[in-house]
Specification:
Blueprint: H1 3-18, E1 27-31, E2 40-45, E3 50-51, E4 60-62, E5 75-84, E6 89-93, H2 97-105, E7 114-125, E8 135-144, E9 149-159, E10 167-177, E11 183-193, E12 205-210, E13 213-218, E14 232-236, E15 241-246, H3 266-270, E16 281-282, E17 286-287, E18 307-317, E19 322-331, H4 360-368, H5 370-376, H6 382-386, H7 399-406
Parallel strand pairs: 15-16
Antiparallel strand pairs: 1-2, 2-4, 3-5, 5-6, 5-11, 7-8, 8-9, 9-10, 10-19, 11-18, 12-13, 13-14, 14-19, 15-18, 16-17
Helix pairs in contact: 4-5
């Protein structure tokens, strides 16, 4: 045996000892179909998560309009969490084992108590006719825990063509309580972005407003020449609490809630949700206030001045009941394009841009089979077009208001235009 072969075998043995294990992962590539300026690609999994931890394919690619740099990945990890503070239950949703499971679900003395599993496999498809997949559907469950819940999540995802240079990745989670009793959960979508066009992880986080609704966003700091073009906003179904944070900030000072830290996900995980003093707070700006400190090293912050943003909803479901939570990440804007409901029109369940008699049949599809409706209409939000009475749910309570609004008697109260 030659010395060269011996050396190669030695390297192979070392590699086997130190290389991370390989785990099966279900993911699809969704794209807005644009090349160059404005390109957006989401390599998303069954749960609507992206991460750069250990799978080189499971992350987002973005090329902001007007930047000379090539496209870059901008999310370190973005994924959903489900909590119940009262019963001390939690789970992080995502298929990236090294990041999601090891970092959260199997975290030493603070592991997950809920169990999650795939029910229906992730499937991608093209809806705008360009031959490139832009939408997907999947179903998963969240069960057990101290609460003994049985919850089903039907997820419809879409990456839309850009509007004014901004593209949005929309995730609509239809949550159904299959338990025999009421279920109360907190649903949080957390984004730890690393917008590294400036080659570091310093990202300011702030709050913007559109149509009276506040939402967090992030961007490169103002010492980056094109920082205005790097904004990424997080919004969704109204009724959420938000936080736009950076490492080192402590909204309640020496109070009981923890200070924000690098990535700022562990503090929320350990707390079974967003700490109270963090709710509706922007780092260096305050509570319920629009603004941003765009500097790389803000007063009150701490190295590495890493930014993050989270939305959290409190959801109460009777046995057998369902509700929809929509999460919208818009790349290129501090606010969602066209508002939380975009261009959706209340009552326009056919999504043809007009509310008329042609919406009757798809309205009843939305009531009876919301997953089928989402597949048929991936570019509309079911709550925005079918929640006619504006209570945040699509159910039988919307039937009479739908026909009243169709006949011009009474308003259409959903978030749609």
């Amino acid at each position: 045996m030659t010395k060269r072969l011996i050396v190669l075998l030695a390297f192979a043995v070392v590699a086997m000892l130190v290389a991370p294990p390989v785990y099966a992962q279900n993911w699809v590539r969704l794209s807005n179909g644009i090349a160059g300026d404005g390109e957006l690609e989401e390599n998303t999994d069954t749960y609507g998560a992206v991460t750069v931890w250990n799978w080189p394919d499971n992350f987002d690619w973005w090329n902001p309009v007007g930047l000379p740099d090539p496209r870059n990945n901008v999310s370190f990890a973005s994924n959903m969490f489900v909590y119940n503070l009262a019963t001390q239950d939690r789970v992080a949703l995502g298929e990236e084992f090294e990041d999601i499971d090891n970092t959260y679900n199997q975290r030493g003395v603070a592991p997950a108590t809920f169990t999650y599993a795939i029910v229906t496999a992730l499937v991608a498809f093209d809806t705008d006719g360009d031959g490139i997949d832009d939408s997907s559907t999947s179903t998963f469950s969240v069960t057990g825990g101290n609460a003994g819940y049985d919850l089903q999540f039907d997820l419809a995802q879409n990456v839309a063509k850009p509007v004014g240079g901004t593209s949005c990745w929309t995730k609509t989670y239809t949550i159904t309580n299959n338990s025999g009793a009421p279920a109360d959960i907190q649903v949080a979508y957390h984004c730890d972005l690393d917008i590294a066009f400036d080659a570091d992880f310093t990202d300011p986080a702030g709050v913007a407003e559109l149509a009276g609704l506040l939402n967090p966003y992030m961007q490169e700091p103002d010492n980056f020449a094109n920082f205005e073009n790097t904004k990424i906003s997080l919004s969704g179904t109204p009724g959420y609490d938000y936080v736009a944070g950076r490492s080192g900030f402590d909204p309640d000072g020496p109070g009981p809630d923890p200070a924000m830290a690098f990535g700022t996900d562990f503090q929320q995980w350990d707390n079974f949700g967003m700490p109270n003093s963090w709710k509706n707070y922007a780092a260096g700006i305050g509570h319920n206030t629009v603004g941003i400190d765009p500097s790389a090293t803000p007063a009150g912050g701490a190295a590495p001045n890493d930014g993050f943003m989270t939305l959290q909803w409190s959801v109460s479901l009777a046995a057998g009941a369902s509700t929809d939570i929509q999460v919208v990440l818009c790349y290129g804007s501090a606010t969602p394009v066209g508002g939380a409901c975009g261009a959706d029109i209340c009552g326009d369940t056919s999504c043809d841009g007009v509310f008329n008699g042609g919406d009757i049949d798809p309205f009843f599809v939305a009531l009876g089979d919301p997953v089928l409706w989402a597949i048929q209409h991936p570019n509309c939000d079911i709550v925005c077009v079918a929640d006619i009475n504006g209570d945040g749910n699509v159910n039988g309570g919307d039937i009479d208001p739908f026909f009243a609004a169709l006949g011009g008697i009474g308003p259409c109260d959903s978030g749609g235009g």
